[in-house]
Amino acid sequence: QVQLVESGGGLVRPGGSLRLACAASGLTTFSFNDMSWYRQAPGKERDPVALITSNGGNTHYADAVKGRFTISRQNAKNLVFLEMKDLKPEDTGVYYCRIHGTSFWGRGTQVTVSS
Question: How are the residues of the chain apportioned to helix, strand and coil, as percentages rounded to the nearest 5?
Fold first, then answer.
């Protein structure tokens, strides 16, 4: 059974940083899959934030987070990360990990940016 478990969320002040992690289990093909992070702000739709290709060679970011967020992965440990810096109140939301292009999602981790 495929499982994605996010961690690392929390409450942070504007300008602060957080590092999210997503641990994948139940699959032997992790290193063949592109992985992505999404976020859902209160009352809004779930939107893509970042994507990383299977070998980590290419990354893509939403315009709102370019230059502040960095996605990375460790295929040997079935892990994906989202490093977030210079956080803003509008970054608040639930952050989800996804095996890109599939119906496999994690349950999310809450990020709140507030003073």
Answer: 10, 50, 40
Distance CA 37, CA 100 (A): 9
pLDDT digits (tens, 9 = 90+) for 51-82: 999 999 999 999 999 999 999 999 999 999 99
Reported confidence tier of residue 28, pLDDT bands at 50, 70, 90: confident
How many other C-beta atoms can be found within 10 angstroms of the C-beta atom of residue 17? 11
Task: Look at residue 112 and give its three-state secondary structure.
Answer: strand
Instruction: Please check whether residue 38 is in contact with residue 49, taking contact to mean a CB–CB distance below 8 angstroms.
Output: yes
Strand partners, 111: 10, 93
The answer to whether the beta carbons of residues 20 and 38 sit under 8 Å apart is no
Q: What percent of the chain has pLDDT above 70?
A: 100
